[in-house]
Amino acid sequence: MLREKTGAVRAAIYIRVSDLRQARRDRYSLETQLTECLSYCTERGYVVDDKHVYRDVHTAVELYERPNLTLLRKDMNENAFDVIVVHQFDRFSREPRHCGVLLTEAKYANVGVESVLEGPFDGESGDAERIFGMKGFAAKQEWNNLRERAVRGRMGRINSGKYPAGWKPPFGFEWADGNKTALLKCPLTAPIVERIFRRILEGTSCRRLAFELDADRLATPSGRVSQKGECAWQANTVRQIVLNPTYSGKVAAYRWQTTKVNGKKITRERPRDEWVWIEGIAPPFVTEDQQARAISLIQSRKREPKHNAKSVEEPLLRTGYARCAHCGTALTPRNGHYTHATTQRDRHGCPPISISCRVLDEIAWQKIHRLLLDSPATIKEVLEFSHEPDPHEMDETSTRQRLESVERQISNYARSLG
Prior knowledge:
The protein is of the alpha/beta class. It is 44% helix and 15% strand. The model is unreliable at 1-6 (pLDDT under 50).
């Protein structure tokens, strides 16, 4: 029930779509919802302030992850308006429990809830609450059925040998037909992919290659182009292209899995034995052997110590041997402590981690010392390993590039000295 006011009733409008593609459809677009909600408020003499129009592009089965719905709930508890108007009650939520939370909060704040298509909600009526809950259950069931049909449709495409189509093809490709059944090389972006593999096989690092692509003002897979010295290409973008098996002609379906950790969606790669392989629908940029060699070069480069560090011996575990016990990600030496990178910590939901490099290195050295003394055979294995050829030293091109880099540095130093 609305508060008794001497002036006009203050209304808030909440509109929502699940994704941007839905937002572009006229029938379900945000603007269509807003227009009908504003007309509803005008007919009833409600006053709507622009700052009390809340828009979300988010799934209806989540509650706390919707930023503007959270803001609406905060303003509602601060007596910012008297009634909430939605186009349809499932814009609030498709989860019955969430509907109960929202209605309870609205009732506690003495704020009414009304729908353009379904009319006002009578919070004083038990029947109304049961009907609302049943509608929420039906909406959730509809969402589950839609998701199940989408999964079946995707699996049907894969079983028939078609590409598991997304909203856009992988970088360097274009759709072969309107049904997105296969891929063709894109004449605009395929040369960039070919250049990436060629330069990686020549021994160029992902970071250096990203700088080169930015310098030539080439667009990234997301369409960004370097502006005023900013970095559009990232080393990880290059790395993910090299790791993608599609570029060797083998499409991997069900390669990624999305889960929730501490309320955040985390996308991780599935184990390779869970992938579903589809061949013959994507032209290869490189052979499988060439891609395997490119991946090996990237991984071996990551294991190398940082030669530009102040000391390659301190800290001892800088090459990735110190790992987070929660997610297994390598810890980074910073200001005398091994710490978890903020992006990785947020991604995996790990607690803050910090340990002194000196303390951990001392423990590691003691362990190594005891291991060598207790097992003479281990010493032999270490000596044999130390004489194994370095894969980068065997790569003549990579070695030549390093020598050229040193020569350029010497030349620069000579010029600076006059």
